[in-house]
Amino acid sequence: MTLELPHYRIYGDGETTLFVLHGAYGDGRYFEDFASHVADAGYRVVVWDCPGYGTSPAVETATIERFADAAQAMIRKEATSQNFLLGHSMGALIGPYLANREPLIDGLILSAGSRGFAARTPEDQKRYMEERLAPIENGMSVKAYATPLITSMMAKGASGPLVDKVFDVVLSMKTETFATSIRAIGSYDGRPALQELTTPTLMIAGREDPACTADGMKLMHEMVEGSEFHVIEGAGHYAFAEKPEEYRGLVLDFLKAQAAAEREEVADQ
């Protein structure tokens, strides 16, 4: 089965590339400001549209593993001398699975992630699916019902042009694309990939994120030996838009630290 490359945007240039995978709601356009700032700091940034999103071709069977195959094809085509992967929400499920299988990935950043649907309680699983799929199954579009749900996933009072951008991107997405991704998330258990993970990893949680909680990400952190864990106060699920400077600072600090560790390792050889 031939796998078509996903659509992606490239910002900046250089020998260190950060690949960015968005969440189930929206597409890579809501990372434009983040990517531009990271590129201005001297990095090359590649932001994808997951299969079925934007102009990316859909995969025949939409699963987290199949999405990871598409991301891997993109990374192998666009890799430079040092490569990092940032996965947000659904992207944070893809990230560990892919990092365990792709040696080109030198470091991993998990943003607003979870251990996977199977790690939730039965009650939470039911609530999660009902909130997201029931409106679609009853004939509503994402545009019709997503505004209050996305609002509830952000910190109280979140505002500004980057928050507005998240809403604009989410509300323009195809309803069936979202439904397909939610079903893919619902069939995936991320715990084995986290337990296997040895790639240097940074985890970023929003204190007020009800979807992928800070407590849940702390459990992820405890599963990955040597990982870093940071909680952004006053942010919900979209910390890159709600608290952009703090979020960006954590990412850039991690990239700098990994580059320094690489130089040290080379010097010792």
What can you tell me about this protein's structure?
The chain is an alpha/beta fold and about 270 residues long. Helix content is about 50%, strand content about 15%. Strands 1-3-2-4-5-6-7 form a 7-stranded mixed beta sheet, with helices on both faces. Strand 6, helix 9 and strand 7 form a beta-alpha-beta unit. The radius of gyration is 17 Å and the shape is globular. About 50% of the residues are buried.
Please outline what is shown here.
This protein has 269 residues and is α/β, with parallel strands linked by helices.
- Secondary-structure-based class equals alpha/beta
Question: How is the CATH topology named?
Answer: Rossmann fold
What's the pLDDT, averaged over the residues?
Answer: 93
Largest sheet: 7 strands, mixed
CATH architecture tag: 3-Layer(aba) Sandwich
**What strand line-up does the widest sheet have?**
1-3-2-4-5-6-7
How many domains make up the coordinates?
1
How many strands? Answer: 7
| Order of secondary-structure elements | EEHEHEHEHHHHHEHEHH
Rounded Rg: 17 Å
